[in-house]
Amino acid sequence: MSATSGCWAPTPKARKQLRYRAAEPDLDAYYGDIEQAHLQPLWEMSGLLTPTPVVKAVPYRWSADNLQKLAARAGELVPIDRGGDRRVLAMSNPGLGGAPFISGTLWAAVQFLQAAEVAPAHRHTPGALRFVLDGDGVYTLLDGDPVAMSRGDLILTPSWVYHEHHNPSSAPMMWLDVLDLPMVAALDAVFFEEGPSEEADQSVSPRSAAERRFGQGPGLVPTGVSAAVHDRPHSPLTVYRWAETDATLNSLLEFGDGQQAELRYRDPTRDRDVMPTLRCEMRRVVGGHTTATDQQTGTRVCAVLDGTGTVQLGGQELSLAPGDVFVVPSWCEHQLEATSTLDIFTTSDAPVLEALGLFRRKVA
Ligand code: GTQ
Ligand code: FE2
């Protein structure tokens, strides 16, 4: 489902060679005729059914330093207006020939909002999430529910939910956005519309309505919730707070070898990922520990909330510091080594691969 052009069609050069090989005039004429008819011979193609995934996206890390400095400069230079209504820097995978995507299936970006700025309401079919690597002060309105955003929080913006971002604080704030946009684009299913014009800043409760209703107590969900809520394919809990995530990771560390813990963010009302296209997980690797090497199908976008160390990605070693974002392309070998305790947020398109029977994972 790569959004870039297919890798199986013969290149113009290959097509010339193909003609050359077809020295017989009949065959030569035939190749000309099928090309005219917009048909292509499978017997001349290669690279279509490969033994393992051939992935255009390459492993890459965007350093916190670059992300912060360059987003802050956009904050100085580029206003937020209707039309271009988000101040967003998309991470462009060096393997994708300039496409503004972190992989063939996912969009990842940093978004920067100055004090007193508003990114106006809209909605779209691609699903999105925000993860806050640093700071606080912004709230996002999700279909009218104000959700305060702070360090370590995961905020969902599921498909077709209106969202607008407000920064009533006195300091700028930046956060990570991940969307399933390239996947939805490859499926020719992108819709977008602007929302009602923004309201004045309102008082924002530290706990959104969604949290008070669906995140009140672990394993406790309301009865009598309308079918409209249950029929939606995403979690009705739209924010997962760092305090709970942190406490859960600490608790999980008491089990196993105590060197690492991993949790999955989940729909509290059903055994499902938070959104139909995006899985979210958080991993803690204790300083001094090295994880097993793993590979899985689908893209993983990883963000370092805390700690330092290195990640091995398909034979490439990258150093990690708080605020760094890296991509693990499909089926790429991945191994973490923590120098100081690493907390790494990961989101992936795994629910899509699982739904289609395409998810594979191998741990060495
Ligand atoms: O915050 O609404 O990174 O619509 C890309 C598209 C963020 C957003 C992005 C978006 C948004
Ligand atoms: Fe959006």
From TrEMBL:
Protein name: Gentisate 1,2-dioxygenase
GO MF terms held by the record: gentisate 1,2-dioxygenase activity
Domain of life, source organism: Bacteria
EC numbers, comma separated: 1.13.11.4
A UniProt-annotated Pfam family: Cupin_2
PANTHER family in the record: 1,2-DIOXYGENASE PROTEIN-RELATED, CUPIN
Region (Disordered): 196-218
Keywords: Dioxygenase, Oxidoreductase
Start and end residues of each Cupin type-2 domain: 113-178, 290-341
